[in-house]
Amino acid sequence: MVRCAESRYARISTAGRDHFQKLLEYVEFVLPELFADKKIKLLHGDFHHFNILSSERGGLVIDPKGVVGPAGYEIGPLMINPWNSTSDRVNFSAQTERRVSILAERLGWEREIILNWAAAHAVLSTWWDIQDGMDWKYTMGCAQLFFEISNGSNWYN
User: Fold this and answer.
1) 90-108: pLDDT as tens digits
2) Which residues form the catalytic set?
3) Among 122, 60, 54, which Cα is nearest to 86's?
4) What's the alpha-carbon Rg for the chain, to the nearest Å?
């Protein structure tokens, strides 16, 4: 499996690998802060819009993965879905800003922590996409946007 992922990664353009490497380095830098919260929780593991349904009883969350970890992990899937919504970057950026504001208000968390969790999950999803031979550009574009919003700058400069 690793050898297959490495060969797929090698087929990505040099520029794509360089951009991914920079995002990976950023996420590696922020991970210790993200995992500083030692309050381990039982998590859904794939919490996003398509796994939240309306029912007669009210909201219903489906398809749990049942993982344990810091609560911030759940932010990632919520922020990168619905899938392929970055085609309109202006709207996706505004949507991301709204979601961050809502999460910051409701959770009492700093915007930077929310965006760092989102970027970390987007980089992880990018690697999964590369490994599975899928289109990785969407999730890498999400990571790029989360970084830019968090840092107020262009990610590749």
Assistant:
1) 888 899 999 999 999 999 9
2) 46
3) 122
4) 16
